[in-house]
Amino acid sequence: MTAFLALTTSLLWGLADFGGGLLTRRTPALTVVVASQAIAAAVLGAVVVATGGWSEAGPRLWFAVGAGLAGPAALFAFYKALALGPMGVVSPLATLSVAVPVGVALVLGERPGLVQVAGIAVAVTGVVLAAGPQLRGAPVQRRTILLTLASALGFGTLFALITEASTNVTGLFLALFVQRATSVVAGGAALYASVRRGTPALPEAGLGGTALPALAFVGLADVAANGTYALAARHGPVTVAAVLASLYPVVTALAARGFLSERLRGVQAAGAGLALLGTVLLATG
């Protein structure tokens, strides 16, 4: 069950990143983040009301608040790093986020078996390669590296916090709602400050008729991924769940290949193969 839920997480995150990437080609990244998270928060609010999730309110929701603050901060740092480039360095480095939940799990006493350790090593290597690391070119700015590492820390912190935010499914709905509501408030404040500085929130041509469904997909896929990850970490070893969930760059690369006809580089194809091998080792270990 852990492997299935974690792989579902990587599928959802990968598709959400792909959709978000397409949207940010014509709409400011900050607007995409805030709008997609607002849609997800509205849907989650309705789910919480329908399921009576408010009864699960308690101190654990502070973990959800922390995750809600970590998420937008990580996204902003990640998008800024991508803007500075090169993406072939930024994307692989961002996968270091898996180190945070795995490290926390090890500190708390989890001890993966030998086969699982091998699976973790193979899968992480595959993810880095699948992201298409840049092996040649001009030196990368120190600021780009620092922003990328900050985003990885933020994403990893989100992974670790969201697993502690609830103890049951109903509570998970409430935790995800609180997380998204916090993200909207924090992201909205940043967007407001950006507009005050003169940066437009919308493209000159407007959002367009297909933007709202796309934003909804990105926001709901992202929140669903957070939910499946929390369930995966609860049903099995966090070390396994975190690594399998981190396979999302492979999904994004394959989506770009399928929908945009982007050609996979040799290093990306090799990385996808290693990621698949690591998945098998983790699932059977």
Explain briefly what this protein structure is.
The protein is an all-alpha fold. Helix content is 76%, strand content 0%.
Rg (CA only): 18 Å
Discrete helix count: 12
Largest sheet: none
Tally of separate domains? 1
| Count of beta strands | 0
Contiguous runs where pLDDT drops below 50 for at least 5 residues? none
The amount of beta strand, in percent, is under 5%
The N- to C-terminal Cα distance equals: 13 Å
InterPro entries: EamA_dom (IPR000620), EmrE-like (IPR037185)
Protein name: EamA domain-containing protein
Organism: Streptomyces bungoensis
Family: Belongs to the EamA transporter family.
Task: Report what the structure shows.
This is EamA domain-containing protein. InterPro entries: EamA_dom (IPR000620), EmrE-like (IPR037185). Belongs to the EamA transporter family. The chain has helices at residues 2-23, 29-51, 61-84, 87-94, 99-107, 114-130, 142-162, 169-196, 211-235, 238-245, 248-260, 266-284. It starts with a helix and ends with a helix. The mean pLDDT is 82. The chain is mostly helical and 285 residues long. The chain has 12 helices and no strands. The protein has one domain (2-284).
Essential attributes:
membrane; transmembrane helix; about 280 residues; about 0% strand; transmembrane; EamA_dom; EmrE-like; mainly alpha
Task: Itemize the secondary structure elements and their pairings.
Layout: H1 2-23, H2 29-51, H3 61-84, H4 87-94, H5 99-107, H6 114-130, H7 142-162, H8 169-196, H9 211-235, H10 238-245, H11 248-260, H12 266-284
Helix pairs in contact: 1-9, 1-10, 1-11, 2-8, 2-9, 3-4, 3-7, 3-8, 4-7, 5-7, 5-10, 6-10, 6-12, 8-9, 9-10
Transmembrane segments: 28-49, 61-79, 85-107, 114-132, 144-162, 169-193, 205-225, 237-260, 266-284
Keywords: Membrane, Transmembrane, Transmembrane helix
Family: Belongs to the EamA transporter family.
